[in-house]
Amino acid sequence: MTDLLHARNDGPPPIPPGTPPILQLQGICKYFPGVIANQDVSLDIAPGEIHALLGENGAGKSTLMNVVTGIYQPDGGEIILDGYGQVFAAPQDAIRAGIGMVHQHFKLVPAFTVAENIHLGWRDTPFLASSKVLETRTRALSERFGFSVRPDAIVADLSAGEQQRVEILRVLARQARLLILDEPTAVLTPAETRDLFRALRAFRAQGNAVILISHKLDEVIDISDRISILRAGRNVGTYRTADCTAAGLATTMVGREIVRRDLRARAPGATPIAPTPVLSLRGATCRDPRGVETLRDVTLDLHGGEILGIAGVAGNGQRELTQVLTGMMPLSAGEILLDGTPAPLADPAAFARAGIGHIPEDRLRSGLAPALDITDNMALREYDRPPIGRHGLYDHTAANHLAQTIVEAAEVRVPDLATPIRNLSGGNQQRLVARREIRIASRVLVAAYPSRGLDIGAIATVLRYLTELRDQGVAVVLVSEDLEELLNVADRIGVLFHGRLMATIDAATADMETIGLLMGGRSAHNGAPHGGSTQDGGQA
Amino acid sequence: MAGTLQRQPTVTPARRLAWRAGAVVTALAITTLFLALSGRDPRLLADLVVRSTVGSRFGLEDLALFLTPLLLTGAAVTVTGRIGVWNIGAEGQFYAGAIGATAVGLFLPGPAWLVLPLMAASGIACGMGWILVPALARAYAGVNEIITTLLLNFVAGLLTTYLAVGPWHDRVTGALASTGRLPVRIPEIWGVVHWGFPIALVIVLALAWLTTRTRWGYQITIGGANEQAARYAGIPVRARILGVMLLSGGLAALAGVFEVAGTVHRLQGGLANNFGYFGIVVAVLARGSCLNVLPAALLMAFILNAGIVLQTQQLTGSTVLAITGLVLFMIAIADELAHYQPVTVRPATVGPITVGKEARP
């Protein structure tokens, strides 16, 4: 049985030759309708190793881990544990086999205590489970595995790092020998990260294994023994960490065939880039309800007639940036300037009136009222101005007119304007939202992942909308996880990492490696010596 | 070819109405069946109900008196429903309105033209005050309004009883049942039907216009359909929730004002007569449309009126609750079934007829 208290030597333990891998994946395939999530993925996880899994969003990491933990059944391939083939019909089977996963978004009950969360749904929980018994057991577990937790604390009151310790302890208590961590450091402070890594090394020293999903190249190089890189659902290679460099990993991770189509060329007669910025951020900082900084000290200028691309792995502050730029989220520090004067904080209506349009990230949840008809949804931005809104009234006929105009501009065929908008396809919804926002975007358009979930034709249409708007002299912010799209359309590309704008670089001369390094948290200068194309991205 | 049922995402109003009419007829048929089984003559009872509700002047007057509070409490619950909030406390706000009106009526002597508007204003203010705390808690702290508004009903009901038999009890007769008769009354326009009835009708029509034809109404529709989208569009959702809940409290309170000043003329325990709760039934039937409150309240008033008639025939008072429940149950089923339409599925035609012409060597 593992006993981590007595094991503090950090390196991988000596493993006798001929020991089978803890987990062996052979040719795993997983398909979803129209999508190949995993194709022929083979992977070995040896006892006593920390194995990092790298890949862009949508590269298939989560799907693969869901297959390993029994949430999905593979459509092909084999899972071999300790040399024996296994079929996980349900997540419980994987847990029983010693595979434990800590998800990026914790699956704890916030209103319960730490001890209750640890014992929830665990077959070893004693029949008479008084809080005293549970807390004593939790304290014992905490000491045995070296993760300090407060057994009687309510989970909702804990910091992200403490919650993560509870999650890991929960998994370890169920005798996991293979621990899977999805982006474990995304929510941690540097000190908490060091603690976590120390505990992971101790876990490894017992002959256990860890799969670490991360985007942070430095961390991966720091802690892992081997690295596998997934791209478009396939394993493109497994490397010994000692042989890897951050630059090499970045290129392998994002370096697919990029078709560069230059959509930066202006149409004749297009408005040139305005010399003075229309919208600026100065040291903009946001905190989430837990007090974690989600946007850190971002300074940038938006000029009319240009497209600023925002790259980065999802969850690094993109949502906060778009909400700040459209007046939906207040700043906790710094300021936002509209034409050089401070803009009203957190007043999206005022931003809309000032000519700032917003194609939101999740159109059904935040940009549309799915149950209402097309007319009501299309009026969302102009209901308070003539011809629809006059003297406090809502002119239904005028709203129908507007909806008809938008529907025609978007080239969407709808049976009837009274159709609930949820009955339209995602692509048509997106086109309608885009046209609606373009109408009010006389100065700025903030488009968050406008091509997400669309087919190639619809993507081309939406991108054409953006370049047309740019040619009319509007400042466009394009947030995207598709580097190809950013490189083709944007004039400048800013890279967000951990809420910080790492750099803003010229898209015409940008190379994938620099962007990849920036997305992984490496500053361009020390990561890529030839990063001459980088400008100072407003980092004071 | 095979026939099958398919669920349609939308239902035309005519189709829904037809299904609902069928539901009401079914509910009445089941009621008739049970009355017959319990040894009564359904034809006799039906004849009696029709004659004493819509078939006679007295019946119509009673119907209007039932309809007046139901229109207002039904509208009160419907307007909050439009922004996604359930005001279960119309009963309590009804009492608060009656208390506020009685206080002015009993203790402020003056001509009726002056006292009646003051009674209405005082009653509405009391009703708004009664919902103020739940409204603030819902809008700014996210406290579930269903619980808070519901619990305040019992407080308001008991407070009314306390006032009616305690400090405000009738000093003339000395009977500990109600306050003294109010010195002013809402003038009648037709038999016992007072001005409260046309005013309630106008209010419901005004609300129907307000909720569908004004900017305020649009903001509430969006806020109720998707709060996140409303915030995205810069709609002050919290202020709208607060405003709509206060309006709702005021409407229910006005029903209480009319009841005490126009129909009962005294404050007494049990005055609200479940009108607040029946308002919820009306709102459920109205499906969020203030215009639909008119027919929904009419149906409810008819059932209540019929219940009184049935009680004169030695049927228990619970009969009316049973019929109401049955009607609601049937309508809920009908609303769901209205989505289903038979479709004919043709097997995919495989053949060279269409493909062949296009095909080229």
From TrEMBL, chain A:
Record's protein name: Nucleoside ABC transporter ATP-binding protein
InterPro entries listed in its UniProt record: AAA+_ATPase (IPR003593), ABC_carbohydrate_import_ATPase (IPR050107), ABC_transporter-like_ATP-bd (IPR003439), ABC_transporter-like_CS (IPR017871), P-loop_NTPase (IPR027417)
SUPFAM superfamilies assigned: P-loop containing nucleoside triphosphate hydrolases
Species, as recorded: Gluconacetobacter liquefaciens (Acetobacter liquefaciens)
Broad class of the protein's primary localization: membrane
Membrane topology qualifier: Peripheral membrane protein
Alphabetically ordered keywords of this record: ATP-binding, Cell membrane, Membrane, Nucleotide-binding, Repeat, Sugar transport, Translocase, Transport
GO molecular function: ATP binding; ATP hydrolysis activity
Transmembrane segments: none
GO CC, one annotated term: plasma membrane
Domain called ABC transporter: residue spans: 23-257, 279-523
Localization per record: Cell membrane
TrEMBL record, chain B:
Membrane topology value: Multi-pass membrane protein
InterPro entries associated with the record: ABC_transp_permease (IPR001851)
Database matches in Pfam families: BPD_transp_2
Signal peptide: none
GO cellular component, one term: plasma membrane
GO molecular function: transmembrane transporter activity
Transmembrane segments: 17-37, 63-85, 92-108, 114-137, 149-169, 189-210, 241-264, 276-303, 315-334
Keywords: Cell membrane, Membrane, Transmembrane, Transmembrane helix
Nucleotide-binding among keywords: no
UniProt superkingdom: Bacteria
Protein name: ABC transporter permease
Localization terms from the record: Cell membrane
